[in-house]
Design goal:
Elements (H helix, E strand, L loop, with lengths): L2 H10 L7 H21 L5 H13 L1 E3 H8 L3 H13 L3 E6 L2 E9 L1 H22 L4 H13 L13
Antiparallel strand pairs: 1-3, 2-3
Length: 159
């Protein structure tokens, strides 16, 4: 048995409800529900909100870059961008250097909605993590970054 397997099993103390996977699922579901409500209060679906947040940080980005950053299927990104564009929150234009490529940019209206969404999500995070110190939040963020949850990443042993 590997060292990390011993640590994971021992930490649960035999209580199945204390298994890390269960705890992450439970807390993740609560966080997901709250973030969905926060985005919904601004008229956004979660993926649309995440797209706006990403664009808000950089101003504009290639459509394929958004697909990669948000780890969604290109057809899903097209639907997200169609919704955001119809609400005048983003605009797509052809890349002058490569007419096959689309550049997506946040609009002024999109920046206004993004400000509301950020405030709503910040409030959710204060509620979720308010009892943690800034150092603990940093440690949690680092630990979560190391958890193996990439889409399509399956682990199985042959034997």
């Amino acid at each position: 048995m590997a060292v990390n397997e011993i640590a994971i099993e021992g930490a649960a103390g035999g209580d199945p409800l204390e298994q890390l996977g269960f705890l992450l699922a439970r807390h993740g579901a609560i966080a997901d529900s709250r973030v969905r409500r926060a985005f919904g209060s601004c008229g956004l679906a979660p993926r649309a909100g995440a797209t706006l947040m990403l664009l808000g940080g950089c101003g504009s980005m290639g459509q394929q870059g958004l697909v990669s950053a948000l780890e969604v299927d290109p057809s899903v990104m097209v639907a997200i961008l169609n919704d955001l564009e119809s609400a005048q929150l983003v605009e797509r234009r052809r890349d002058p250097a490569d007419r096959r490529r689309h550049i997506v940019a946040i609009t002024d209206r999109g920046r206004g909605v993004l400000a509301e969404a950020r405030a709503a999500v910040d409030e959710v995070e204060r509620g979720l993590f308010g009892d943690l110190s800034p150092e603990e939040v940093t440690v949690l963020r680092g630990l979560l970054a190391r958890v193996r949850t990439s889409p399509g990443e399956e682990f199985c042993s042959e034997g």
